[in-house]
Amino acid sequence: MKRIRRSALVPFSARQMFSLVDDVPRYPEFLPWCSDSEVLTREPGRVLARLEVSKGTFRKSFTTTNRMEPYSGIYMALEEGPFSMFEGNWTFAELRDDGCKVELDLQFEFASLLMSMILSPLFEDIGNTLVDAFSRRAESVYA
């Protein structure tokens, strides 16, 4: 099982950062590996979302149920996709008046050795750069 943890201190509020991560349909605008994304259902405290990841001509999608704790956390659990296990947590902690701490904790394991060989490097790269990508997105949207 792979585990990736990343964090960043950003000059934006927890509310702003939460809103960016929650805005799933806009992911393809700024995440180069995300070829498609959509919210399948949204109800209070819960979002079902699908992402399509691509590298070259290879494309794979997965669906997660995201438990939403407005402005403090998003907790993702696998519904469908090439994983035997996938879960992740985004947390957003206010730091006085001058920003927040954004943390991402991802754990995943692919359902087959072939999927692992193909997708592990891509998902490791995604996990390692995701917090930075959202930080840059915040700068372009809010600065």
Verbal overview:
This protein is of the alpha+beta class. The chain has a single domain, classed as START domain (Alpha-D-Glucose-1,6-Bisphosphate, Chain A, domain 4). Helices cover 30% and strands 50% of the residues. It is built from three helices and seven strands, in the order βααββββββα. The chain has helices at 14-22, 27-30, 113-142, and strands at 2-10, 34-43, 46-55, 58-69, 73-80, 83-94, 100-110. It has a seven-stranded antiparallel sheet with strand order 1-7-6-5-4-3-2. Strand 4 (58-69) and strand 5 (73-80) form a beta hairpin. Helix 1 crosses helix 3 (113-142). It starts with a strand and ends with a helix.
Features:
about 140 residues; Alpha-D-Glucose-1,6-Bisphosphate, Chain A, domain 4; globular; seven-stranded antiparallel sheet; about 30% helix; 3 helices; alpha+beta
Order of helices and strands: EHHEEEEEEH
- By secondary-structure content and strand pairing, the structural class works out as alpha+beta
Number of domain units? 1
The CATH H-level superfamily is START domain
How much of the sequence lies in strands comes to over 45%
Report, as a whole number of angstroms, the end-to-end distance. 38 Å
Average residue-wise pLDDT: 95
Rg, alpha carbons = 15 Å
Q: Identify low-pLDDT runs.
A: none
CATH architecture: 2-Layer Sandwich
- What is the CATH domain class? Alpha Beta
| Rough outline | globular
| Neighbour order of strands in the largest sheet | 1-7-6-5-4-3-2
How many strands?
A: 7
Share of helical residues: 25-40%
The main β sheet shows up as: 7 strands, antiparallel
